[in-house]
Amino acid sequence: MSTRLSTLTLSLVTATLASTSVGALAFADRAYAPGPTVRAPAASESPAPPGLMRRAPSRPLRPGRPTSPPQGDGAPPPGQHYAKPPPSGEHVSASEPEPAMDRDALRIVLRATRAKNLAAFRAYAAAGIYPSNTYADDELNVWRDRDGHLCAAATIISKSGATELVTRVTEQNNFIKLADVKQGPIEDWILTSGFTQEELVAIQKPFMGVAKKPPMPTPDPFDDADPTVDTSKRATETARLKKVYKTVDAQLVRDEAKSLDLAADRLLKHPTIAWRALGYGAEG
Length: 284
Prior knowledge:
By secondary structure, the chain is mainly alpha-helical. Helices cover 46% and strands 0% of the residues.
């Protein structure tokens, strides 16, 4: 009798250990959170679909803390920088930090752009071919004259590749003053030019009248009547402008460091334009 009892007890213990081992393996393989008891599938049963299988986490989860930030209703992830670049269409993991605006990198870009625009200004000043103000006797900002000559600012913008913008300004306001620009495409260009608006105002000097006959009371850029240019006045005005541009050039060189700081600070207030200047969200 005692031998029978010992054999029976040993069988029960062995069965219990086997059941516990299988249950533990099934738990580790199919679930990682407390829940209903999971049994091992029998050989005749098909395995669980792959979508239901989840790997156990490498470390325990903290109760009450979500594993990822909320994504609904456009809620920004924690730590999002105020100057987020335009979406590129590529998926970015919620666990990756948002890129922050790098002022130093922005300043480097502005400095390179400033150098190109300064070279364009110097070439314009050296060429000595400036618009003729045949619209008024007094000083007047002329974007493009009847012969197609552009002012210094218009030339710099055109050389930067924004030729359509220059044409549009000619058609809409040929006597524009950059000092009056507060918004729009011209303002956007100024922000990324590497120059401050004050410097571009200095570059865009108004022109003295050089017409031989009295001009019309109201300047009209599309007037077919072409007043003859007084060659003496034209020569005097050209000489004057060359001296003015030389002085402006010296100021641009002297003020470069502080002007770049000011330009960068102003551009930072326009995140979308700033990110585009850094190469984000550019078309094409």
